[in-house]
Structures are given as C-alpha cells and as structure tokens.
Write a structure and sequence with these properties.
The protein is mainly alpha-helical. A five-stranded parallel beta sheet has the order 2-3-4-1-5, with helices on both faces. Strands 6-7 form a two-stranded antiparallel ribbon. A hairpin with a 2-residue loop joins strand 6 and strand 7.
Length: about 900
C-alpha cells in the first residue's frame, strides 16, 4: 500500500490495538477528524496490517449520507460475511437480527437485542481467529446501525476483536477511546505534495501548502485546480475546492457515464444490478461503468460499486440538474419493487409536492421499522410522509406518529418540534390530547416530572371524553403514569388528583387496570395518612403481578409496590420474571426500570452482590437506551451498598450524583437513597450525631413521605439510642416503624420492630426479652443484614450488662454474617465487641470462597453451576461467550476448581 506520511503515532496506536486483538483481547478506537484528514487512509493501513502481519479476518462497512434513514443498512454491510452464521446465535438474537435485515417478518426484538446479536455474531467470526472491524464515515451510519454497533462495542472484552470507527465531529461515541487527527506537519505535507504533484512551481506549491493546512486530501486534489486560480487571492472553503476538483473530473466523462454515475450516487447502496437496471431506463449503455471506473471515480467488485472517496458522491449529485436528479430517483423507485423501504424513499425524493402514493409508502416503511423497533428510522419516514400529505388532519396525525417514534428513539427535541407543527394543523381535541401525552414523556425525560404529570392528567381527561372502553383504558394508563410521576415527587396533591380521576373513570377489568388503579389509591393514602391505611389496598397489585402475564409496565408497577408493602421476595420474583421475558422478547428498553425494582428487592433481602450487579447492568442499559432518570435511583442504591461496605469515598461520589439528579429533576427517590446511604456511612463509622442529624433533616422534607423513611427508621432509633438525650426522636421513629410493621403483618418487620423497642427500653429484663423475641423472629425471615444487626446490638447490650459469654454467641453470629456480606465496618465493630467481651478471634476454617469473586464473576459462576453454556450465559447477561469464558477463567483459581463440574459442589450464595 502507499506509505503514509506523518502518521507514525497514529499507526503505532493502531498497531497496539491489532496486537492486543491477536493476543485475544478486544478493543475499540474512534478515529475522529475533519473531511480529508486521513481517516480512510488509516483504516486502509489497519486493514493491510491486520491481514499481512497478524493474519486477521477483516470486515468493513461505511455510512452513507443518503442511507441515514434506512434501518440497519450499514450494519448489514458490515455483517454480510457472517450472515450464514446467524442461525448459530441464541433464538431471540437470531430472530432480532433476521427481522432487522429483512430476512424474516416475525419475532423481531428491541434494537439493543440486535446489538447483542451483533456482539455474538462478531464473536462467532472471531472464533476462527482474530477479527478487525472497520467502519468508515460512522457519522453517516443510520441510527439503528450505530446504536446496535455501539452497544456491542461497549461490551467487547476478551473476544480477539478490534473495532475501528472513523467519524467526523457529531458522531456520539461516548465512553469509547478516541484518537483525533490533526493536519500533517510541514515536512510531511511537503512530502505528500512532492509525491503527488512534483511539477508545481514554487509559488503554487507554497499556496497549496498554506491553504491545505496539512489536510492530506487537499494536498492531493488541489494541485489540479490551483493553476486556474493562480491570480485569485481570495481563498475558497477547503471542502468546496475538493468538490470542485471532483466535479471537473466528472465533467470529463461521456454523457452516459455521467448518467450512470448519477444513479450510483442517488442509490449509494452499491448494488450493481440495481444501478444497471435503473440507469438503463435513463439511457446509460453497457460501457458507462467502465468509463467511470477508468476515470478512478468508482471501484467495481463482487457485484458492488463504491465511490473512490465519499465526497465524490456529493459532487456527482451536484453535477446534474434538479430534473435529472428527480429522474434518477424515479428510475430507482421503478426497479426496487422487491425492496419497499428503499423504494419508498426514492418515491419521496422524486416528489415535488404533495404525493399520497409516496407518503403511504413511507408510512408503510415506518410501520415495518417499528415492528423491528427501528424508531429512529420510523421517525424521519413519518415526518417526510407528513410533508407529502395534503390533508391537514392526516398530516397532523402523521406528524404525531413521527413524534411518537422520535420519543421512543430518545429524540425528544425533534419530537417537540414535530408536535408544535402538528398542533397548528388540527383542532381535534383527542388528537391534540395524544400530542400532550407525548409532550409529557418529553418533559419527564428532560427532568420535569411535575409538568409531565400535569400534561398527562389533562390528556387523560380529554381522551376519556370519547367514552368508549378503549378511550377509558387509554386514559387510565395515562393516569397511572401520572400517579407514578407524582409519587416520585412526593407530591400529595398531584397523586390524589390522579387517584380521584382514576376512580371517576372506573377502568374496566378486561383492560387489566383494576389492580394498578387500586395501587394508585393506596399510594395516595400512603402519602396522606400513612402505611396503615394503604398496605392492604396495595397488596392486590402485588398478587396480580405474581400471577399475571400482562404487559411489562403493569407488572413492573407490581414489583415496585412490592417494595412499598415489604414483600421483597415477591418484588424479586416479579422482576426476574419480567427481566427474563424482556430479554427473550428483545424488549430491552424496559430493563433499566426492571433492574431498578430488582436491585431494590435484592438489596432489602441482603443479596448485596446480586444487587450491585443488577444495578450496574441497569445503569449500563439505561445509558444505552437513553434513560437518565433511572440512573439516580440506581446510583443511590449503589451508594447504600458502598456505605455498608465502608467504601466511603465512592459512597459520597454516588450520593453527590443523586443530589445533582434531584436538583435537576425534583425526583425524590434518588435523594432518599442518597441521604440514607450517607447516614448509614456515618453510622458505620460511629458518627451517630451526624447520622441522626441527616436522617432527621431528611424526615422533615419530601423524603419523609417516601418508603425509605420507614426503612431507615431503625437507623434513626439506633443513632438516637447511642447518643442519649434524643428520646423524642427515637420515639417518633418508633411510632413510624410500629405503624408500618403492624400494618404489613410481615415476620421480618416484626423482628426489626422488636429490636427497635429493645433499643429504647431502659429496663434491662424487658429489653432482654424484646431482643430474644427479635432473634427468634429473624430465624426464618431471609433478611441476613437485619438479623446480623439485631445479633450485634443484642451482643453489645449483653456485654454492657456483663453477660459476656452470652454476648459472644450473638457477636460471633453477627460477625460471620457481616463477613459474608462484606459489611466491613460492621464486621470490625463486631470484632471489637468480641475482644471487649474477652473472646479470642481466629479465622474461620474453610471460608466460603465466593466473597473473593467480583459481582460479575459470581453471577457467571452461578449460572455455569446450573449447567448453562457460555453462549446461554452470554445471552442472559448481554456479554459475548468469550467474555464469559474469560470471567470463568479468572474465577476458577479463586474458587479452587479446575472444571465446571466442580462448581455444583460449591456454596455460591451472596
């Protein structure tokens, strides 16, 4: 290949990436820079090095400006060499990818399921040896391809895959390593110019060097035009100069070759039979392709045609008249009868005014995109369909449909603009109400749940006015969403308004809204009158969620309500079931919310490492799906776990994120977790005054109306009891936990309540009996964290009452559990108490090896112990099979095993 000048450091970076892939590691690099700066040349260098030096397989694709609306077009190009392996993937991934590529009509899935399929398919290719994936002009990737590819890129780990993407500014590759390309240095620029234009006169050479600013493509192309401007001193923009150079080369072609080149530019899929058929309709003969190829403008190979450089496509389109471009699109639409999505866009490109045929074709294309969750592709298709629609009412409905697709794709600002236009076109109240409901979703995503609630309430009232069962069901769902927003804000009046409207609406049981409506009524009672009035009402939704196979939103509501009523086993059971179904169906967009309820359930059950892994997965998927409002809640729970473990700096960092999130959105849930986590960190360090002050301050605000205030009441009591002189605070917290525990009727709550009563009881015999009852009740509740804290507090009290032998028994029980939970500050406290009680502490023989595993290693080894294959585990955890193998390889020595068969005999509990 032609040697590169002045790119030594960049080549070295690529060499390191390729060497790592050859050794079995994976990596991604984004080459970013201006047009013509040399990104494509570096990709060519990487391809040559991969093949010649490392023996790697190379797959390549590029984004095309005119294909940005066609879902998965670029991804199909990249994965074409591996399409014969699709059936080797897990069934949900196979179905998702086949539907994405138009190979099947049924069984598609979420875009991110397509991303997981991409990861698995690339891993399949890499099983034959290291793999290099190159993507040029990534800024022109269609949104669906980009999202799926970036999902896979962020999960590459140990597959032996190198992925290099070349892009201009504007391509969002957050979280991936980047290398920005600058212009060549002076010496390298002179070398390039001497190589490509050795005959330039010194004045012209100086001008090219000055105006190119080190841009390699300009150094190659400008010499052919600079002579014509030797007396012109006003510089032109560099891209224009390059495009003019291409235009001059195109102008030298015979007319038929220019026509053929126009069709290539208008279609740009590169399918040679399509180009030949369409150009023949415009009179281009068989010799046209040869003339364009001899001129160095295109490359033809393997039944495909590509431009020598992407800028040539724009030049070819600008080199003809408007009418000629229209004719090319009409010819392409005529021959693409077997590819309806592409045909629809060519029909639209050929339209010069309202055109219902083209609009309907685009609407049908959008419907196909939505079936495979290609919302980014559906939105522009519907928007263009609206532009081609003459009837104002129909145009408004298409604009609202485009806005809905844009919201689903995370394109809130664009959706808002579409809704503004639609509002000016229709006076139909229900159409405008549906637009309001979409504005509510945008408001929530923008961090304004209060406005979202108000919009939903107004929209529900209007839609319910239709007075059909379907209208009432639609309105009911909007009111349930409104109530969820009000709960997150701890806004009693807003929640009551939603509950009252739901009661007036009377949702029909056949729509499955009865239990959800009951939960809304219960939530309103909870905020206004406390738990005793609410829990019995809300339990119906939990029972329904356990038995039902209804939509994910209603069942996730049930899992959330399970946390309010204290039934964490039910919350975990529902969350796991919904998560499994969402994964199998490819409905990945639901997973951040499901992981939120799952994390909370696991945390309350004392499954801290499971909770940590669930939260980390939820955060990663929330980032992939553009759901920042879920992040604060998940980070708050991670902060709580860090407090338990004594990771105080990380706890403070995560809690700060939660506070920032609350300041932006007003959502109280994340603030509640942050305040509780910080107070727990103080409690773990023996800073009882600080812990009590923080919890009392939280109790006085909106956090005091959240369920966390019930669950941190025992911490308030512990801190107050250690300080003395805070009986009033302790009694208030005791009243709160008493009301909730008695209303819940749960064994674990009764155990904690007895512990709390023991802490405030001054009479030792009475306190002793309360502690004993608490320990007995804890025995079968499945909440090791709470049980260990009861044993610790009982042991401390026994030691102070000079019952050292009895104290040692409870303190050892507490220490054992705290060590298993990795609750370091509490384990240290238990050890100190044991020493004070006169005990000798020796390391436990045969300790459970599981605590030495990372959360990810623990999850993988547990699944492997059940007999699942690496491929099945990968599908479950959104990893590649090779990454699963890597984690097992690291886990086996920690566990002291050498084979998967030995895992079944280990204790891998949290």
């Amino acid at each position: 290949m032609t040697p590169l000048h002045g790119r030594g450091p960049e080549q070295a970076t690529l060499d390191t990436l390729l060497a790592a892939a050859s050794a079995g590691s994976s990596g991604t690099l984004v080459l970013r820079g201006d047009p013509g700066i040399g990104k494509t040349a570096l990709l060519s260098y990487a391809a040559a090095q991969a093949r010649d030096t490392h023996g790697m397989t190379v797959v390549q694709a590029a984004g095309f400006e005119t294909e940005a609306e066609l879902p998965y077009a670029s991804l199909h190009m990249l994965l074409r060499p591996a399409l014969n392996r699709i059936d080797a993937l897990p069934a949900p991934q196979t179905a998702a990818l086949k539907q994405a590529f138009g190979l099947a009509r049924e069984g598609g899935g979420d875009q991110l399921m397509v991303g997981l399929a991409v990861l698995s398919l690339l891993s399949e290719l890499a099983a034959d040896g290291p793999l290099l994936c190159l993507v040029d002009d990534a800024h022109w990737l269609d949104h669906s391809s980009a999202r799926a590819l970036l999902f896979a890129a962020r999960r590459l780990h140990a597959e032996g895959i190198a992925l290099v993407l070349a892009a201009r500014d504007g391509f969002d590759a957050a979280g991936l390593p980047e290398l920005r390309l600058a212009g060549l240095d002076d010496d390298s620029a002179r070398d390039v110019l001497a190589e490509h234009a050795p005959g330039l006169t010194p004045p012209l050479r100086r001008r090219v060097l000055e105006e190119s600013a080190g841009n390699p493509l300009a150094l190659v192309e400008l010499p052919s035009t600079v002579a014509d401007h030797s007396r012109t001193f006003e510089p032109l923009p560099l891209p224009r100069r390059i495009q003019d150079a291409y235009a001059a080369r195109i102008a030298e072609l015979p007319p038929q070759a220019r026509t053929w080149l126009l069709v290539v530019a208008a279609e740009d899929d590169g399918d040679l039979p399509t180009v030949l058929a369409a150009s023949a309709r415009l009179g281009a003969g068989a010799g046209a392709p040869d003339a364009a190829e001899r001129a160095g403008l295109v490359r033809i190979a393997g039944g495909r045609v590509t431009f020598a450089h992407p800028l040539m496509r724009g030049a070819a389109l600008r080199a003809v008249t408007f009418e000629e471009r229209l004719a090319a699109h009409r010819a392409l639409a005529a021959v693409l009868t077997d590819r309806p999505d592409r045909r629809a866009w060519h029909l639209a490109a050929a339209a010069t005014g309202p055109d219902e045929q083209a609009a309907l074709a685009l609407e049908e294309s959008a419907a196909r995109s939505r079936e495979r969750n290609g919302h980014e592709a559906a939105a522009p298709a519907l928007e263009r369909a609206a532009e081609l629609t003459a009837d104002p009412g129909r145009r408004a409905r298409r604009l609202i449909a485009a806005a809905r697709a844009a919201v689903d794709a995370g394109l809130g600002p664009r959706a808002g603009s579409l809704l503004d236009t639609a509002a000016r076109l229709t006076d139909d109240p229900r159409t405008r109400a549906r637009a309001q409901a979409l504005r509510a979703r945008i408001a929530f995503d923008d961090g304004d749940p209060g406005t979202a609630h108000d919009l939903l309430l107004a929209a529900a009232g209007t839609i319910a006015g239709g007075n059909t069962a379907q209208d009432r069901a639609e309105a009911g769902l909007l009111l349930v969403d409104a109530a969820r927003n009000a709960w997150q804000l701890s806004d009693t009046s807003r929640l009551r308004a939603a509950a009252d409207l739901l009661r007036e609406l009377g949702p029909h049981p056949e729509h499955g809204l009865g239990p959800a409506a009951a939960a809304v009524y219960g939530a309103a009672e909870f905020l206004e009158r406390g738990p005793a009035a609410a829990l019995s009402i809300m339990r119906a939704l939990v029972d329904h969620g356990r038995k039902s196979s209804s939509s994910p939103d209603l069942r996730v509501n049930a899992a959330f309500v399970a946390g309010l009523v204290g039934d964490f086993e039910a919350g975990r059971e529902i969350s796991l079931a919904v998560a499994a179904e969402c994964r199998s169906r490819g409905e990945i967009g639901w997973l951040p919310l499901v992981h939120l309820t799952l994390t909370a359930s696991e945390l309350y059950l004392g499954k801290f490492r499971d909770a940590e892994a669930s939260a980390a997965d939820g955060l990663r998927i929330a980032a992939d799906t553009g759901q920042p409002n879920r992040a604060g809640y998940l980070e708050g729970m991670l902060a709580w776990i860090c407090a338990v473990r004594g990771e105080y700096d990380r706890c403070a960092e995560l809690a700060a994120h939660c506070h920032d999130h609350f300041d932006t959105t007003g959502i109280v849930n994340s603030l509640a977790w942050a305040e509780w986590a910080l107070a727990l960190a103080d409690l773990g360090r023996g800073r009882f005054a600080e812990a009590l002050e923080r919890l009392e301050h939280a109790q006085e605000g909106r956090v005091g109306r959240q369920i966390q205030s019930v669950y941190y009441a025992p911490d308030r009591i512990e801190a107050a009891s250690r300080l003395g002189g805070h009986d009033r605070s302790a009694r208030a917290a005791l009243e709160q936990i008493t009301a909730w525990a008695e209303a819940s009727g749960l064994g674990w709550a009764d155990a904690v309540l007895h512990r709390c009563r023991a802490l405030v009881e001054q009479d030792w015999p009475k306190a002793h009996e309360l502690f004993r009852t608490a320990v007995r009740l804890h025995a079968n509740t499945g909440r090791p964290w709470e049980a260990a804290r009861t044993h610790l507090l009982f042991g401390e009290r026994l030691r102070r009452e000079r019952h050292k032998t009895d104290a040692q028994l409870h303190l050892r029980t507490a220490l054992s559990t705290f060590e298993r939970l990795r609750a370091t500050p509490w384990a240290d406290r238990a050890r100190a108490e044991l020493r004070a009680a006169g005990a000798t502490i020796t390391p436990r023989p045969g300790r459970d090896p599981a605590p030495s595993l990372s959360p990810q290693e623990l999850r993988i080894t547990r699944l492997a112990a059940t007999g699942m294959s690496n491929r099945e585990i990968a599908g479950q955890l959104f990893l590649s099979p090779k990454t699963v193998s890597y984690h097992l390889y690291r886990a086996f020595p920690k566990l002291g095993v050498t084979s998967r068969a030995q895992l079944a005999g280990l204790s891998l509990a949290d």
